[in-house]
Design brief:
By secondary structure, the protein is α/β, with parallel strands linked by helices. The protein is 45% helix and 19% strand. The chain has a 5-stranded parallel β-sheet with strand order 3-2-1-4-5, sandwiched between helices. The radius of gyration is 16 Å and the shape is globular. It binds adenosine-5'-diphosphate (ADP).
Length: 168
């Protein structure tokens, strides 16, 4: 039976932290589905279609390298429902620090109550990318800072275009 993992997130924008988790999760799964959340109330900077295209582009080398199939989808409801719709047996989450830990463990426990057949697998952030958060990348980019250490060049291009449009 194929091992299918579901990795939900905002990916607004995708960072080297996400890519580190994706590359490591791709070694655990035959198929990895990346779910771009489109929740109401969570205001995003980059349009969802752009976030999806960006994810497809920057994860292609990981798929080639690991042999895992990586696909990108959107979801607006519960992560467990989206995971089940894609026949995923597990949800992937990344843990950076104690704040992530408290929130993520609580969410995993709620999710397992809702869907006992879907496990959450936590991957601890790698030291080199642990400090990266999409929210801070956005703040730095808005203030004209260099985000090249935190996101791939395709994401830098998208951020520059989105911020240029937003300032007009
Ligand atoms: P953010 O929290 O930066 O806005 P997302 O909502 O897209 O990012 O997060 C999706 C998942 O990716 C979460 O499990 C989050 O903890 C994880 N994640 C985000 N950034 C990193 C990172 N630098 N290293 C490891 N995991 C991360």
């Amino acid at each position: 039976m194929a091992r299918i993992g579901f990795y939900p997130g905002s990916f607004d924008p995708v960072t080297y932290g996400h890519l580190d988790i994706i590359a490591r999760a791709a070694r655990l799964a035959d198929r990895l589905v990346l779910g771009v959340g489109t929740h109401h109330g969570k205001h995003s900077l980059i349009p969802v279609e752009t976030r999806m295209t960006l994810l497809e582009t920057v994860t292609r080398p990981i798929a080639e390298h690991t042999g895992a199939r990586i696909s990108v989808t959107t979801f607006g409801g519960l992560a467990v429902d989206a995971a089940r719709a894609h026949h995923a047996g597990f949800i992937i989450r990344g843990l950076r620090d104690a704040t992530d830990f408290d929130y993520e463990v609580q969410m995993a426990q709620m999710n397992v109550s809702l869907a006992p057949d879907i496990e959450t697998v936590f991957l601890s952030a790698s030291p080199a990318t642990r400090m990266i958060a999409s929210s801070l990348v956005k703040q730095i980019a808005r203030m004209g800072g260099d985000i090249s250490l935190f996101v791939p060049k395709e994401a830098q291009t998208v951020m520059a275009a989105v911020l240029a449009t937003a300032s007009h």
